[in-house]
Specification:
Blueprint lengths: L8 H14 L6 E4 L2 E4 L15 E4 L6 E2 L2 H10 L8 E6 L2 E7 L4 H12 L14 E10 L2 E11 L10 E4 L11
Parallel strand pairs: 1-3
Antiparallel strand pairs: 1-2, 3-4, 5-6, 6-7, 7-8, 8-9
Amino acid sequence: NTFSPEMDPTTAALEREHEDFTKIKFCDSIVFGNYEIDTWYYSPYPEEYEKCKRLYICEFCLRYMKYARTYINHKAKCEQKMPAGREIYRHKTVAVYEVDAKEHKIYCQNLCLLAKLFLDHKTLYFDIEPFIMYVLCEVDKDGAHMVGYFSKERVSPDNHNVACILTLPPYQVHLYFS
């Protein structure tokens, strides 16, 4: 077999369909912790959130909100100061949390929706139970602040180690996951 840089017609048609569907980005930015981050791609948040130009996302529990006031109230009341799951690694101010999607389904679905804002070809948002997520955080007195994550299939028929990997834009200059 000779490698051809051209796609077969079926793959090309699927790529065109994907591009047409995802080029309409409804959410222009998110507020996440201390950052306002411009989004890069469409993410399939529920319909009532599609027309929001800015989404507010709790950096700890990943709950998403339409309004700044709701976000401010939530931050004052949210008791979660780290990702769901259990801490499996700590070195100084860096920690990794293992989050089982079977046990923390909503958190992991919200993580996938967040990731899709920055990953063009991410396709998995809701059928996430076969996956384990590993969330990388910077830890300070206020909590464990998510830097990025990677996921892996619990059982991979193709022997894949990593299913998805993301470093949030404000942290990409720090060379996490490199």
